[in-house]
TrEMBL record:
Designated name of the protein: Response regulator
GO molecular function: DNA binding
Residues that bear 4-aspartylphosphate: D68
Domain HTH luxR-type: from-to ranges: 162-227
CDD domains xrefs: LuxR_C_like, REC_NarL-like
GO biological process, one term: regulation of DNA-templated transcription
Limits of the Response regulatory domain: 17-135
Keyword Electron transport included in the entry's annotation: no
Lineage: Bacteria, Bacillati, Actinomycetota, Actinomycetes, Kitasatosporales
Amino acid sequence: MSGAPVREPGAGGAPVRVLVCDDQMLVRTGLVTIIGAQPDMEVTGECADGRAAVDLAAKVRPDVVVMDVRMPVLDGIEATRLLAGSRVRDPVKVLVVTTFNLDEYVYEALRAGASGFLLKDAPPDRLLHGIRTVASGAALLDPEVTRQLVGRYASRIRPSDGGDREIPLTPRELEVLRLIADGLSNSEIAAALVISQETVKTFVSRILSKLHLRDRVQAVVYAYRRGLVN
């Protein structure tokens, strides 16, 4: 996934390039139709399994891959890891879609590098908002679902020694990280700590930088894995 010039999605009127991967033809066709009807988006390809998604992404260079989880040949988790994992030199943003709001596979996909997730029964406007959000470089997290999803499955892989003694954050940064992991938005964190949203943004940026994390999704996973939240 290298060699092409870097371009910003939506920059200069350029549409967000989207690759759709879902093994159910009706679902895939619906996604392609909805996305393709948007003036600021372009469907660059569609496929029915994760292996095809990885191969096609290398050719068409999408800004966002809308990825199903349970698919033949190569599932969405492994495909996400190959497209957006920590060892990928030029990662692609992946938005995971799933039928279940408490799906262990979705948590694993987030660990693999996905920038967010949506339920398949989400309305079209939420899907489109999700694509635009992920394309912009932000993470897409539903606070309530995130608390249930990550909290339920992170405990299975949490290190036994846990704790925060080796985490290179100040007490205030740790406090902010815990609130991020609890699903709070910047405005909610600001209200909880009685500080400005700009200050919260600064804390979030420092946390991501110090922990070498890409976005809030990875921060949530990190916090649960280190036992910072229950």
